[in-house]
């Protein structure tokens, strides 16, 4: 008896399967890295938004007090959505004595600077 010969074999060779698995593995690794980057960016955006709220709240409180701020630095603490932020109000004179420049600088709990917002406050 003769061995049966198959003129057209069906299926994939081992090399083809390994190449396909390599492509899938590389694609999945890139997808996981992209998802991690998106998560980090979302967390950073949330942190920056909360820090901006802290700075804007301090500047709004200063405007609503209707008092002309004295030149100097003032430290403050702020809580936003369970996170603590440290801030500093920096009041500086301007060329016009009826106005003061006020900067609200915000840092995270570790002391890393996050953002600074500036405004001009006039004498009432």
TrEMBL record:
Domain Type II secretion system protein GspI C-terminal residues, every copy: 45-121
Principal place of residence: membrane
UniProt KW keywords: Cell inner membrane, Cell membrane, Membrane, Methylation, Transmembrane, Transmembrane helix
PTM summary: Cleaved by prepilin peptidase.
Keyword Phosphoprotein: no
Annotated localization: Cell inner membrane
This protein's record includes keyword Cell membrane: yes
Membrane topology term: Single-pass membrane protein
Function: Component of the type II secretion system required for the energy-dependent secretion of extracellular factors such as proteases and toxins from the periplasm.
Similarity-based family: Belongs to the GSP I family.
Subunit structure: Type II secretion is composed of four main components: the outer membrane complex, the inner membrane complex, the cytoplasmic secretion ATPase and the periplasm-spanning pseudopilus.
Protein name as annotated: Type II secretion system protein I
Gene designation: gspI
């Amino acid at each position: 008896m003769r061995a049966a010969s198959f003129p057209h074999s069906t299926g994939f060779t081992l090399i083809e399967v390994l190449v396909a698995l390599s492509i899938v593995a590389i694609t999945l690794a890139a997808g996981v890295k992209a998802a991690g980057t998106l998560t980090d960016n979302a967390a950073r955006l949330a942190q920056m938004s909360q820090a901006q709220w802290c700075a804007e709240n301090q500047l709004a409180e200063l405007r609503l007090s209707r008092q002309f701020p004295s030149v100097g630095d003032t430290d403050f603490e702020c809580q936003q959505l369970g996170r603590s932020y440290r801030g500093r109000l920096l009041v500086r004179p301007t060329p016009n004595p009826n106005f003061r420049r006020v900067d609200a600088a915000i840092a995270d709990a570790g002391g890393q600077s996050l953002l600074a917002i500036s405004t001009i406050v006039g004498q009432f």
